[in-house]
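Expect chain and fold; see below:
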Amino acid sequence: MDERTMGRSGQRASVVGLGTWQLGADWGDVDDKQALSVLEAAAESGVTFFDTADVYGDGRSESSIAAFLGGRPDLHVLVATKMGRRVAQIPENYVLDNFRDWTDRSRRNLGVDRLDLVQLHCPPTPVYSSGEVFDALDTLVAEERVAAYGVSVETCAEALTAIARPDVASVQIILNPFRMKPLYDVLPAAQEAGVGIIARVPLASGLLSGRYTRDTVFAADDHRTYNRHGEAFDQGETFSGVDYATGVEAAAEFAALAPEGYTPAQLALRWIVEQPGVTTVIPGARTPEQARANAAAAKLPPLPAQVFTAIRGLYERRIKDQVEHRW
């Protein structure tokens, strides 16, 4: 699989990575054996970038990655984790002593001396404007606790603030055919600054797979049940902030645009991979089959121009007014 440079870090990541939220929590139960089989399928398919967080299963996702990579010393995988969501979301918690504690815990979970890439995990908006926060992150690099750092954001405004920081290696942001706003300013700014873009929630929490109907029931411990209106965390993380009924109808239209040989999910992933400025896209997977199918999107032919036009038209008609003013 093709690899791209992760911004200012100089690290390399496969154009399709693996998001491992599903392997920790909030998507229904995934047991340890199943988690390892997903990681194995992704690696065998050429994936060299795993994204995790200390809060996914309270460290379970990180530990699963450590268990897998510990048995595969032949593999080179860039592992990015995230920190900050295990405490109250107030700017005062984003200080060097906490950063040291959090990264020490992640280093233990991942079984490494130095984290490849650590990201602030969608912190309060004022954090992105704090020079002290980024000085503390620079200290983590100097102390060799982390090789590089980035941020995960909810809004385009937060992304642009972070991109302006001189040592931010990457910005992780929601980007998919139902969340196009980052295309306007964020991706061009990242390209100009040499900052990597990690595209998350690429399938709009599965909507863009075309598998769901209005009658689909998700497990009680799945965020697609309990966070549809932002009850637990930012609403934009669930179905990209799109009303479920609208999303299901728009997803059916989207699925009909898939060229021969593409599944709807692969169409969504391929659309993201082809956006200038994107470094990697990180779909999640609950099964080895999903992991392999997602990775296969990297090797599909480029999309025809008329497909891009049709996807844009669908977004403009059905989705834009719901999401652009919020994120």
Observations:
- Strands lie at 3-5, 12-14, 18-19, 49-51, 78-83, 117-121, 149-152, 170-174, 196-200, 280-281.
- Residues 156 and 184 are 9 Å apart (CA to CA).
